[in-house]
Amino acid sequence: MRVARLSIENYRGIKKSNLLLPKHGVLLGDNNTGKTTVLEALDLVLGPDRLNRQPPIDEHDFFQGVYWHDLDDGVEQAQPQIEIEATVTDLSDEQKAKFGDFIEFWDHLLDDFYEEPSPEGVDDEDIQEALRITFIGRYDPEEDDFEGKTFFSRSLSEAQNPVLFSKKHKQLCGFLYLRTLRTGSRALSLERGSLLDIILRLKEFRPRMWENTITTLSSMSVADDPELGINSVLESVNDSLKKYVPKEWGVEPHLKVSNLTREHLRKIITAFIATGDGTHAAPFYRQGTGTINMLVLAMLSQIAEEKQNVIFAMEEPETAIPPYAQKRIVHEVRNLASQTLFTSHSPYVLEEFGIEETMVLARNEAGNLTRQNIELPDSVKLKRYRQEFRTRFCEGLLARRVLVAEGATEASAFPVACRRLAELNPDEYSSLEALGICTIDAASETNIPGMAELYKGLGKNTFAICDKQGQQNKMLIEEQVELLLMHEEKGFEDMVLKGTTSAARKRFAAGLEWPQHLTERYPNPTISALESLSDFFKWSKGSWGIADFLAQCSESEIPEWLRSSARELKQYCYPSDGDQDAGNDVSSEDFNEGDPDGAD
After folding, report:
1. What digits encode the pLDDT tens for the residues 350-381?
2. Which CATH number fits domain 1-68+79-174+307-374: 3.40.50.300, 3.40.50.10210, 2.70.70.10, 3.30.10.20?
3. What angle do CA 143, 144, 147 make, to 5 degrees?
4. Longest dimension (CA), the chain
């Protein structure tokens, strides 16, 4: 069983979305894109325990918080509704028998329902039974409250009275959503809907322990020892009460260990786990975060083994777990579940999924959420994409804005320059991190257009930074980026050394630990700091030498081209109200200047 398509309308930050979901997939996108909303929507329509919360939705679950329209010139308007529809395919024989009256047919090749007038067509191997389920949430003005119910979708249009998709129906679907809250306090408790409770229900095991436990606890009196003095205090309270109430009221306060109700015991009973090699044990939720998460995922694996037909939705399984364990978790859960949907920010999790399983989500200002498919340009081969995924591609997939840098020097030095400027003058500059920009090393100038094309195709804002380019490559880059930051020097190091001050060069040269071969060439490198540093930066290229230089500069010592580029990038990402030119072609190259302080 799996969800092949999910349609969402008017739910949280999503005005409208229609997503095709893979059998196993990972949802990517910048924060507040809608990844969690997608999983929460699935939980509303398929989760058996979500509707236990009354009401299941509230004001903030409606798009932009609008859940009611007043009369417009006396004309009644259709009131806002949350509508979430899941199309479930790969049904088991048990599900087909249970849901037979509402079965439809899904074409896996077209990713749509088969509605041809020819009944024989359903025998095609690409056509399978499917089920549509719809959650509807709305505001009820008569009750002044919110309500949410789940229905068989076909019954909404074909039946005189819509047919509810009940909790028992949802349990047959086997959808499980792993959230942080469940991980922290409920997994090994006996609360309704906890993982332990789910396992017990799957095993059809009902331990008749409540009567014995309540009887045992009711016979236990706390602090009976007279030396403690608690009972004597309670007796004095009781004596005082007798002055005001009849004896028949039967007060006599004493201490017990619980409310002695099943619901209360469900909340307070939890599993204890050994904290080391010794005999000491503590509540499971007091263990380390990584231990708790591994424990929860082990329980999820047991649920999958018991049920054999489970959809797992998991948020960030990498939390507090080392890389090798992240990869093992994803691999094992994929093998156990009929469908898995993850959100993640970990490259070790992401590289477990193929390109067709990686769902890059993007949401526009109107609230429309779409899935962007990863399409590699000709210059980026699949083998290279896989080999360099962690170091070159992953961060860009997770970001909203991408700056493609010509090489390692630009990729390391320009972010440092922006960060330094933001520290020195936060009103005028911003770090790339604050702008939501990640920097990707293209490894050569010829790779810039292809790398930018990849991220542009995913709906990212793309920028580039490079040395002076030939006209043809410059045009290729400009076709793929919104902003090109290009200086007029042959190398980034030359631009920095010529654009900084003599004092900055000498100060940095004096504090360096020079390699032997350069010491022999420049016995006193501060005398000819421009030449000696030029050789040093060439020798240390790619190892943060130029970045270290910029990190110790004052604002005036940072070359004007870098200051101008940092201002321009900030203005482009967050244009001021009075600026109508944000997004136009850049003119940073106009700021390329020589040494303001003369030769060293």
Report:
1. 999 999 999 999 999 899 999 998 999 888 88
2. 3.40.50.300
3. 75
4. 105
